[in-house]
Amino acid sequence: xxxxxxxxxxxxxxxxxxxxxxxxxxxxxxxxxxxxxxxxxxxxxxxxxxxxxxxxxxxxxxxxxxxxxxxxxxxxxxxxxxxxxxxxxxxxxxxxxxxxxxxxxxxxxxxxxxxxxxxxxxxxxxxxxxxxxxxxxxxxxxxxxxxxxxx
Length: 151
Prior knowledge:
By secondary structure, the chain is α+β, with helices and mostly antiparallel strands. 22% of the residues lie in helices and 32% in strands.
């Protein structure tokens, strides 16, 4: 008798909120080709990644060419990814706040990213972001408020 797995699959991803520096005043957001809205850089966790943090370092470098330091784990949550909206399988992402290891490192678009732009954090509005990253941004905004109070 052959055993068959019939449970939905959860695909782990990472998203990287890359700030210009520890002041948390400027954030880099990216766009994919043929998209008008902005997003965090990130992607699927690979089997060779040691941890979600390792995957975040790899994705940040693959998509921006910048080696980053993780400031903090921000959140994990299900993402309403349009590719999985009508399927039983889903994505759960882990969001990390990061900064470049050196102020000389400026993110440039690589891999599947066509554009990267620096935004003053307080100028970012929800409707500027892809739908699936709006709730992540809401949580990041709350995280940033707490971090700024701690400084």
